[in-house]
From TrEMBL:
PANTHER family: PHOSPHOMANNOMUTASE (PTHR43771:SF1). Residues 7-133, 157-256, 264-371 form the Alpha-D-phosphohexomutase alpha/beta/alpha domain. Belongs to the phosphohexose mutase family. Residues 376-450 form the Alpha-D-phosphohexomutase C-terminal domain. The lineage of its organism: Bacteria, Bacillati, Actinomycetota, Actinomycetes, Kitasatosporales. It comes from the Bacteria. The keyword Metal-binding applies. GO terms for molecular function: intramolecular phosphotransferase activity; metal ion binding. Keywords: Isomerase, Magnesium, Metal-binding, Phosphoprotein. One of its GO terms (biological process) is carbohydrate metabolic process. It comes from Streptomyces sulfonofaciens. The keyword Phosphoprotein applies. This is Phosphomannomutase/phosphoglucomutase. Coiled coil: none annotated. The gene is manB.
Length: 454
């Protein structure tokens, strides 16, 4: 096919519409390029439940094997299950998924051995260059000896590893509603929770990459309405939603009210610090709540603030030896999971914390949810840089205010802060604001939006 790789090779992955933007022959070239760039003798490959995933995954495997790599295919899996396989087998890996994108999309998330991410600066640019070279001339020459293709089931091993990292043996009985959104959570959750004193109420566990019930993106409030209603109807203790590839989890309490990912980050951080003797570094991005670094310090840890984005989190995890990292987007990273993100492990921590005491989830998380937050608010603008410059000028001279530009513009005052940053893919500015009370937060939110929107 004639392919425009600039449209499908993103900062951290490959993603586009199938077959319009990419197809199996192109996936085969990506497999060959992946082997060439990593130099791997062996690789591990998995895929989600999208209709196009098995064919694309097998094509990639053929491409890698033709270059001499022995390929282990683990079949249907969540993204964090692929990371588990990459870490446990110490092999470079590729996961075929488009996460929460619509059904006609698919993509490849690639990593080096030990689940180390492959992005533009760590191999993806070279992979793209090789594929473009082959598209312009001819397919790559095969290796003198082709690699093998073997299948392996890693689901139980993945579940056992997660269960080894969280003590759930003595929790009280819980009733949990889990919305898999027809994604890979429907495949992994029954095995991971098997044998625990948890009454599981499954929602949309049927694997269906056409997403017949709702988009598998729990950060959009519209997509957790069914979960919220079911939690209330069942009188459940907790509700958990996973995205399409089940690497992110979102939590609602017994009332069906959302628990902010910052509160989950703080709760898990406190538990990971306790598990590590009350010491350790915790990474958080700059738009998580003030409560996160506060809770980390209160529990003996050292908080480290980073830019938004999993590549920055993973770099800082590796650089600092951090035990845990969390983002506002419900991505949670663990040192003992090869610094990779796993929503399932975060969910197990929340279940363990809830089941380890007698109170409801709302009371448990209240200690970690201390401020009034705006949530992320997007504004379409013609001139992102110009709007940010105007915003900076408006706040630069104010007393008791500090500015930094680690990622967009962050302005901090004693009683509030906000961050505005540009989207990399759309003409948007994203605002997050937080304050010590709702009135102050609303005031600063509206002031900033008026400046952003002109």
């Amino acid at each position: 096919m004639t392919a425009d790789l600039s449209q499908i090779v993103k900062a951290y992955d490959v993603r586009g519409v199938v077959p319009d933007q990419w197809d199996e022959p192109l996936a085969e070239m990506f497999g060959a390029a992946f082997q060439r760039v990593t130099g791997a003798d062996a690789v591990v490959i998995g895929h989600d439940m999208r209709p196009s995933s098995p064919g694309l995954s097998r094509a990639f495997a053929r491409g890698a094997a033709a270059q001499g790599a022995d390929v282990t295919e683990i079949g249907l899996c969540s993204t964090d299950q692929l990371y588990y396989a990459s870490g446990a087998l110490d092999l470079p890996g590729a996961m075929f998924t488009a996460s929460h994108n619509p059904a006609r999309y698919n993509g490849i998330k690639m990593c080096r051995a030990g689940a180390a991410p492959v992005g533009q600066d760590t191999g993806l640019a070279e992979i793209r260059a090789l594929v473009e070279e082959w598209l312009a001339s001819s397919a790559p020459a095969p290796a003198a000896t082709a690699g093998t293709l073997t299948r392996r089931d890693t689901l139980q091993d993945y579940a056992d590893h997660l269960r080894s990292l969280v003590d759930l043996a003595s929790i009280r009985p819980l009733k949990a509603v889990v919305d898999a959104g027809n994604g890979m959570g429907g495949h992994t959750v029954p095995t991971v929770l098997s044998g625990l004193p948890i009454e599981l109420v499954p929602m949309y566990f049927e694997l269906d990459g056409t997403f017949p019930n709702h988009e598998a993106n729990p950060l959009d409030p519209a997509n957790i309405v069914d979960l919220q209603e079911r939690v209330r109807a069942e009188g459940a203790d907790i509700g958990i939603a996973f995205d399409g590839d089940a690497d992110r989890c979102f939590v609602v309490d017994e009332h069906g009210d959302p628990v902010s990912p910052s509160a989950v980050t703080a709760l898990v951080a406190s538990r990971e610090l306790a598990r590590n003797g009350g010491t350790g570094t915790v990474i958080h991005n700059l738009i998580t709540s003030w409560s996160v670094p506060e809770v980390v310090r209160e529990n003996g840890g050292t908080p480290v603030r980073t830019r938004v984005g999993h590549s920055f989190i993973k770099q800082e995890m590796a650089r600092t030896g951090a035990i845990f990292g969390g983002e506002h987007s419900a991505h949670y990273y663990f040192r003992d999971f090869w610094n990779a993100d796993t929503g399932m492990l975060a969910a197990l921590h929340v279940l363990a914390a809830l089941g380890g005491q007698e109170g409801p989830l709302s009371a448990l998380v209240a200690q970690y949810d201390r401020y009034a937050a705006s949530g992320e608010i997007n504004s379409t603008v013609d001139d992102q840089a110009g709007r940010l410059a105007a915003l900076k000028a408006a706040f630069e001279g104010r007393e008791d205010v500090t500015l930094d530009e680690l990622d967009g513009l962050t302005v901090t005052a004693p009683d509030w802060w906000f961050n505005v940053r540009a989207s990399n893919t759309e003409p948007l500015l994203r605002l997050n604001a937080e304050a010590r009370d709702e009135t102050t937060m609303s005031k600063i939110r509206d002031e900033v939006l008026a400046l952003v929107r002109g």
